[in-house]
From TrEMBL:
One of its GO terms (biological process) is potassium ion import across plasma membrane. Keywords: Ion channel, Ion transport, Membrane, Potassium, Potassium transport, Transmembrane, Transmembrane helix, Transport, Voltage-gated channel. It comes from Fundulus heteroclitus (Killifish). The record marks 161 as: Role in the control of polyamine-mediated channel gating and in the blocking by intracellular magnesium. Its main location: membrane. Gene3D superfamilies: 1.10.287.70, G protein-activated inward rectifier potassium channel 1. It catalyses: K(+)(in) = K(+)(out). Residues 35-175 form the Potassium channel inwardly rectifying transmembrane domain. The chain crosses the membrane at residues 72-93, 147-170. This is G protein-activated inward rectifier potassium channel 1. Belongs to the inward rectifier-type potassium channel (TC 1.A.2.1) family. KCNJ3 subfamily.
Amino acid sequence: MAALRRKFGEDYQVVNTNQATTFSAPVKKKRQRFVDKNGRCNVQHGNLGGETSRYLSDLFTTLVDLKWRWNLLIFILTYTIAWLVMASMWWIIAYIRGDLNHGHDSSYTPCVANVYNFPSAFLFFIETEATIGYGHRYITEKCPEGIILFLFQSLLGSIVDAFLIGCMFIKMSQPKKRAETLMFSQDAVISQRDGKLCLMFRVGNLRNSHMVSAQIRCKLIKSRQTPEGEFLPLDQCELDVGFGTGADQLFLVSPLTICHEINHKSPFFDLSQRSLMNEQFEIVVILEGIVETTGEEAFPITTVLVPLLP
């Protein structure tokens, strides 16, 4: 115990795990987090130049990353505009050929039968695009421009369907919501385990379905200055949670306690209790694995605690 006191300074208090002693957590000061508890990163990029064009060059990923309300708005607007434009093209062909003036003339062969006005042209397009085929409106063989437009409509409809429906499917199948049933402890603690001083927190899975190949990693995010005088903002340091022993590979059927041993390799080795409370840093925990039911990879991310409690 004396060695532990010398290591962490005189203000370090030894925790006796054999006695039922409780400690009240100090009042936390609200501060801006680098990563929120729900895994959302509070990082905004600025003054990059050409940022909009970079997002548009990867339009599919940009649409998937948008919020649901914007996705639904783009989905509805794209189909509505495409339907109106294509229906207008069918109406223009009928108007140029004079089919609108011979709508009820049985001796006249129009481009599209039974298309008298814009609503009937719109209904013909919807019946064709959705492959409903009521049989009342149909294209005739004496309309080459209509055949070309029909082929263009089929190709364009397939592209729009593949793009938008694929985007919606991928967005719905994202494993982000799986993180809602993976629980992390609200606080982390520093205490002794097996005679060693350890930083510990808990993680649990609420669902009965397993996380296959679950692995946990911890990152310490802290600004520091190198011996050469270079300032490194938000420098990332890996915390050892059992890489060498395989303890980072989890069989998550019940809540588990994740342990980081504070030894001479730990970034907390030279810190005391008081300095821990005053330091500006953040511990980010990343749990990655494969969802058993869908076979997709899930990456729940959370921030454990700032500051740490003894």
